[in-house]
Specification:
With 167 residues, the protein is α/β, with parallel strands linked by helices. Helices cover 34% and strands 17% of the residues.
């Protein structure tokens, strides 16, 4: 499989009540197909967030958006477009990053930025930390490819997002 030019097929998810921003590197092929974040059924993101906030796990995009809104979570990837082979983060080159200013200027996110996995952290630190000066918290990837972490381990590590909300 050859690297292909890929662009983000959907925008950021946030509203004026967002207090937490979670960053991923770039949407998987499946996420780009369905048109929303964490679209691959084996990704454990929705299970983790649902458990932390004691909510029903969403199935549809509308239910996912409702969960995010009710938990004051914004989602936006670090990369807007790149060369990538399939969904392999390790193959990413030719990066064009997303613009965080609209989210930072219209929400209560402030410094509550979290990244989902080491690749997202590395890309954020390279391209966006110098611009925004906000150091994110790196959380273990919810991808099924991160077999080192069982679901219970992810939930324990990700609990920090629940305690980071403005009360």
């Amino acid at each position: 499989m050859q690297p292909q030019k890929a662009s983000h097929t959907f925008g950021p998810f946030y509203d004026k009540n967002s207090e937490i921003l979670i960053r991923e590197s770039f949407p998987s092929v499946k996420s780009r197909e369905v048109g929303f974040y964490y679209g691959h059924p084996t990704n454990r993101f929705w299970k983790v967030v649902s458990e932390i906030f004691k909510r029903k796990e969403p199935g549809t995009i509308e239910e996912k958006q409702e969960l995010l809104s009710s938990c004051h979570i914004a989602l936006y990837d670090v990369i807007d477009s790149c060369m990538i082979t399939g969904s392999a983060d390790s193959s990413i080159t030719d990066v064009k990053v997303t613009d965080l200013a609209p989210i930072l200027n219209s929400t209560a996110v402030g410094s509550r930025i979290f990244v989902n996995g080491k690749t997202a952290y590395r890309l954020y630190m390279k391209y966006q930390f110098p611009v925004y000066g906000i150091r994110p918290v790196c959380l273990p990837s919810t991808s099924a490819a991160n077999a080192r972490y069982r679901l219970d381990d992810l939930i324990r590590e990700w609990q920090v997002i629940g305690s980071s909300r403005v009360l």
